[in-house]
Amino acid sequence: MRFRLTPRETSFYDMFAASADNIVTGSKLLMELLGADTPARGEIAERMRAAEHAGDDATHAIFHQLNSSFITPFDREDIYSLASSLDDIMDFMEEAVDLVVLYKVEELPKGVDQQIEVLVRAAELTAEAMPNLRTMDNLTEYWIEVNRLENQADQIHRKLLAHLFSGKYDAIEVLKLKQIVDVLEEAADAFEHVANTVETIAVKES
Questions:
Q1: How far apart are CA 192 and CA 99, in angstroms?
Q2: What is the CATH number of the domain that holds 107?
Q3: Is 3 part of any domain?
Q4: By residue range, what is the domain housing residue 183?
Q5: What is the mean pLDDT of each run of 10 residues along the chain (206 residues)?
Q6: Domain for residue 20, yes or no?
Q7: What string of H, E and C letters represents the secondary structure of the chain?
Q8: Contact 49, 96 (CB under 8 A)
Q9: Which residue, of 56, 142, 151, 187, is most buried by count of CB atoms within 10 Å of its CB?
Q10: Is 79 within the bounds of a domain?
Q11: How many angstroms separate the CA atoms of 103 and 128, rounded?
């Protein structure tokens, strides 16, 4: 790691960790949605909405700190990119839950559970990795595994699309379910964007 003569603002590390912990909360709400009946989904959506608002607050706090800090722990554009990508994950997860409720989906297609399991694992790995930004230690396995999970998510998504277009569902239901599985896929992509940003930061700091 480069030697620095000037002190750095370290509160970013805690804020990134808090943002990632909130994403774990969101992923668990997604998992809870799978086993919930229709009446319970509205309450889960409310909790997810609250988690998404907390994520927005965390992102705004990072941006505020970025704008008011003379010296940052790593490049400003990377701080912005990391915060934005973490925020995107929460946005996509909240959107997926909201769509399930708004579209009054009675039963999610087989394979959505696998999508969500991938997101839960990616959330856990991301939360474990954020504190390591302080030292840049033990991060290589993190971004390799998240990239592997994103590839797995791609495969699950393609199989889901094939299932949706198999003729089992009517056209309107296909449109509803496709939008939900597409948003979950975007969440997986956002996890990969976070991992790629962390890799970029680590390379610059090495």
A1: 23
A2: 1.20.58.220
A3: no
A4: 10-205
A5: 46 94 98 90 96 96 91 92 97 98 93 97 98 92 98 98 95 97 98 97 89
A6: yes
A7: CCCCCCCCCCHHHHHHHHHHHHHHHHHHHHHHHHCCCHHHHHHHHHHHHHHHHHHHHHHHHHHHHHHHCCCCCCCHHHHHHHHHHHHHHHHHHHHHHHHHHHCCCCCCCCCHHHHHHHHHHHHHHHHHHHHHHHCCCCCHHHHHHHHHHHHHHHHHHHHHHHHHCCCCCCHHHHHHHHHHHHHHHHHHHHHHHHHHHHHHHHHHHC
A8: no
A9: 187
A10: yes
A11: 34
Tell me if 95 is assigned to some domain: yes
Tell me the one-letter amino acid at 148.
R
User: What size, in residues, is the chain?
Assistant: 206
Instruction: State how far the Cα of 110 lies from the Cα of 48, in Å rounded to an integer.
Output: 22
